[in-house]
Fold:
Amino acid sequence: MSRLADAIVAGEFVVTAELGPPKGTDVAHLLEMAELMRDHVDAINVTDQQSSVMMLGSLTVCHLLHQRGIEPVFQVTCRDRNRIALQSDLLSAAVLGVENVLCLTGDYVTLGDHPDAKPVFDLDSVTLLQAVAALQEGHDLAGKPLQGTPTFFPGAVVSPVARPLGPQIAKMEKKVLAGARFFQTQAVYDPAAFESFIRQVEYLQVPILVGIILLKSAGMARFMNRNVAGVTVPDALIEEIGRVPPPERPAKSVEIGARLIREMKDMCQGVHIMTLGWEKYVPQLLDQADVERNRRTD
Amino acid sequence: MIITAQKELDEILHMLEGYERIFLIGCGICAATWSTGGEKEVRQMAAWLTEAGKECTGAIVTEEATCDMRTTRLLLKRNREAVEAAEALLVLSCGAGVQTVASLLDLPVYPALDTLFLARLQSMRVCDERCRLCGSCMLAETAAICPIALCPKGLMNGPCGGYEDGKCEVNRERDCAWVAIYERMERFGQRSQFMTIHAPKDWRDDIHPGWVDKRRSAQSKGVAK
Structure:
């Protein structure tokens, strides 16, 4: 089992963060950010062409992290590859020692920087999870036996404050049925809404890592409210970050983030921090949220 | 109903460059109903072409759908003189109609319309796509709302995380198909049916070109499985 799987199964409070690969081949900054976070997190997700913007591949970066003893989570979307390519990449991941796989649908192509590209979506997040399960059982989606069986720790995502919530929870249940062993959520800024969500999905008995995005400014919060599905930043928080002059914003942002984590940590089994360039504040954030511990295992 | 939209006049004139005498054909079924290839539109197109310096040797609208080879063949025969006087034909129909005409004549044939989709007609001005002709209908399992046609991602197992207030991430003015399916199923007490995991689509049902020969037990679409 992967280290992340061990920690989750052991019932530890788990911390994951996220890194977006660069557009290009220069990975120096990316690796620097990974090193900055390594002792503080259990694993680092590597995004797969996030927001449909063409980037260096997730699997390559996962491999680089793995080589350095940093636990990667391979994010896989259904947007760009059919079932043949997806299964092949999953096998490649296993051979490279990458076990944690986060299965996502993927944003639509028109949201990104190649809006004229052909969208694939041959599988969806549920059938991608089924593909992971099939490979672990020693055969592919066509039922053909594998020579060498991979081990994975499959996860999925959910949007706890989606409107309406019913279809979101139904889909989450399908993902559990299809083999999802943990969930990372879209960013949550409303602990009360999160609590209500948690009550409604308790029956699924699956570990959930609540999503946190540090609020960099009031403008960013308003942008997310307008443009990011499933993210709602309450007015009070927008005001709180907006009142602070720019030089003091990182400290305020960390304070808000830590408060959110403190308020929600007892409702779930971990936190997933989407850093969006603010990797250096992760140690502070975790410290203030009282969830800091040395997670270095190598 | 097949929905079509007229191409820009500049594009049409560019296609017809070098041809002076043009014969026009409109479609009496879909294009006539959607006002892209009926009597009025064909007359208007003839007037534009004349204004642009072309000569229209004739202009007809097929009584049946232009894609019905039998009736279109007869009509072309009845208008043989005017058709043969033309150097090229311009067809105001869907792509199937254009190709039906082209298959019946040894003359250059051009499309005046772009073919958009198979739609539900809400009014004479509003329509929306309802069927992708995918070859294996799953409407029985999705409360008669098609996610292949109505979800831009064609998802088979529920909504993605991109919907907001029940609207689609790709176009916030459009309803999320899977939210609509979920709500309709809930009304019918079918939540358990929503939980069925649908296998990935078998794309052999959607291999093109499709064809049917009822005289033989031939595949209508795709290949033998």
Q: What stands out?
A: Chain B has two domains: 2-117, 135-199. The two ends of chain B are 30 Å apart (CA to CA). Chain B touches chain A at residues 152-166, 169-170, 176, 178-179, 182-183, 186, 191, 194-195, 197-201, 203 (CB under 8 Å). Chain B has a mean pLDDT of 95.
